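User:
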Amino acid sequence: MGWVFIGLALMCFGADAMAMLERGAPGLLALGELWAALDLNSLTQVGEAVSGYTLPEIWNPGITSILRVPGLLLFGVIGLLFLVLFRKRERRDKLFVG
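Assistant: Predicted structure:
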């Protein structure tokens, strides 16, 4: 799972690089900007559904604050955490050392 998130972070890095070339200025794209670039209609529909069927505070400021975080950083940190937390550990209870 960690490698999946690292892959998502690399895809966000590619989108950031393309956006930097288009804008001519450095900067990271927020997760909401990436989602809007992929499908703005789905972002709007999810916002309306979450606000309509649950507490509106869950969408704003809850989820919208997450959508302001750069995708590269969010997916990269989650991926690194998964890789560190669920790494294959060496057994220390070996009876015989050869």
